[in-house]
Write a structure and sequence with these properties.
mainly alpha
Length: about 260
C-alpha cells in the first residue's frame, strides 16, 4: 500500500517459501508480479504471475477471479491453448457464461483447434442467439478451415444483426472472392466504399473482384487509386501484377514484379 513494491514482493516470496500451500500468499505474489509487468521484462513478469495464479487455482479451484486473471494473462502472452484451458475451468464454475464460451472459442481458433472452437461458439449462440459477434467468429472459423459456404452463411447471419459492421462485410467479401464469386464480393466492397470511400481494404477487394470479372481497365483504375492513397502499400503493386497476368501480359507482369 505504501508503493514499496520490491519490498512487498520480497515479503510475498518469503510467505510462499514458509507455506507453499497458502493460496493467499500465492495470490498476493501473483498480483504483485502482474502489477510490475511493464517494459522489456513484462513478458517474464507475466509468466511468473501466471505460475502463481496456477498455484492459487490448484489450491482454491473455485476462485473464479483468479481463473479470469490467469486466462487474461495467457491471452496477453498469446498462449492460446493455455488460455482456452483457463476459460474451460471457469466455465465449470459458470456454465451459462456467454463470454466464457466466446473467449474459449476465440483462443481455440487461434490455437488451430477449429472443431472445438466451432463447438464452443455454437454453445455461445445457444446462450445468446442474437449475437453478431458469435456468428462472426464462426465465420472466421469456417473461413480458416476453407469451408467457404459455411463461412458465407455465418458472416451473412452476423450482418443481418449488425449491417453496418465493416470488418464483417470485408471478411465476407474476401471469402466470396476466394470462393470465385466475384460479383458478390464486388457488391460487398462497394457497400463498404459507399460509407467509407477511402477504405484501402475495400478498394483492394474491389480491384481483385473486378480483375476476376475480367473488367481489367476498371481494376487497373482501382489499383492506381490504391497506389495514390498509399504509395508504400504493396497491395496496389501486387494487384497490378495479377491484372497483367490475367490479361496474359506476362512481360508487363515481370516488369512490375521487378
Amino acid at each position: 500500500e505504501m508503493g514499496r513494491l520490491d519490498d512487498a514482493e520480497a515479503e510475498a516470496r518469503a510467505a510462499v517459501a514458509l507455506d507453499p500451500d497458502d493460496a493467499d500468499a500465492h495470490l498476493i505474489l501473483a498480483q504483485l508480479e502482474q502489477i510490475q509487468a511493464a517494459g522489456p521484462a513484462a513478458e517474464e513478469a507475466l509468466r511468473r504471475a501466471a505460475a502463481q495464479y496456477e498455484d492459487v487455482v490448484r489450491l482454491r479451484p473455485t476462485d473464479g477471479q483468479s481463473l479470469l486473471n490467469l486466462a487474461g494473462i495467457y491471452g496477453q502472452l498469446q498462449m492460446h491453448k493455455e488460455a482456452a484451458r483457463a476459460w474451460e475451468r471457469y466455465q465449470a464454475l459458470d456454465p451459462g457464461n456467454f463470454e466464457a464460451h466466446v473467449q474459449r472459442g476465440t483462443h481455440l481458433l487461434m490455437a488451430g483447434e477449429s472443431e472445438e472452437a466451432a463447438a464452443a461458439m455454437k454453445t455461445a449462440l445457444e446462450l445468446q442467439p442474437g449475437s453478431a459477434r458469435a456468428y462472426q467468429i464462426l465465420g472466421d472459423i469456417y473461413a480458416r478451415a476453407e469451408d467457404s459456404d459455411q463461412a458465407v452463411l455465418h458472416y451473412r447471419k452476423a450482418l443481418e444483426i449488425e449491417p453496418a459492421n465493416v470488418r464483417m462485410r470485408l471478411a465476407l467479401g474476401d471469402v466470396l472472392q476466394q470462393a470465385k464469386r466475384p460479383q458478390e464480393a464486388l457488391a460487398e466492397a462497394e457497400a463498404v466504399l459507399v460509407a467509407d470511400p477511402a477504405n484501402l481494404f475495400a478498394l483492394d477487394l474491389k480491384g481483385r473482384s473486378l480483375r476476376d470479372l475480367r473488367r481489367f481497365d476498371e481494376a487497373a483504375a482501382v489499383a492506381d487509386a490504391l497506389a495514390a492513397a498509399d504509395p508504400k502499400d504493396t497491395k496496389a503493386a501486387y494487384l497490378k501484377v495479377t491484372i497483367a497476368e490475367s490479361r496474359r501480359d506476362f512481360a508487363g507482369a515481370a516488369a512490375l514484379l521487378e
